[in-house]
Predict the structure.
Amino acid sequence: MYRAIGMIELSSIARGIYAADLMLKTAYVDVVSATSVCPGKYIAIVHGDVAAVESSISAGIEAAGEYLIDSFILPNVHPAVFPAITATTMPDKTGALGIMESFSMSSMIIAADAALKAADIQALELRLGRGLSGKAYFTFTGDVAAVQASVEAGKTLIIEKGLLVDVEVIPSPSDKLWPTLF
């Protein structure tokens, strides 16, 4: 069970690939995602034990140099964050729908973790940058009260950074909407 997740975001794709290689050679971590994202940025997300993620991210930050946009390390990450990033989640049942949208990929991962820890919700997808001009969004389901509590928990963190685009809670989504989300 991985205990931590970390990410670096760079303005150079070439330097991003170089930094990701160094991150993987520095510590025993696994890649969650290492890819170019809109608009011409590169992200490297790794997970592993806390010390390994800290070492890996530190190496990535050093390698990124002037191309570093943002980074974070999140110890004790909620386990549902990983499948949400890779969009490999299918809910047991559907209820209310929560959507959080941010100008920042890093802040959305942190907000998604907070939302998952705030109430009994099920993550659907944590979309990072691709086709979004560098923005990110998180979708999840649960009962209305849980979805509202989770939105509030995540929204607070994004607002603190001044990077909130929007949040929505749909108490009873149309059955025709669900297939568009998976």
Residues 121 and 142 are 5 Å apart (CA to CA).
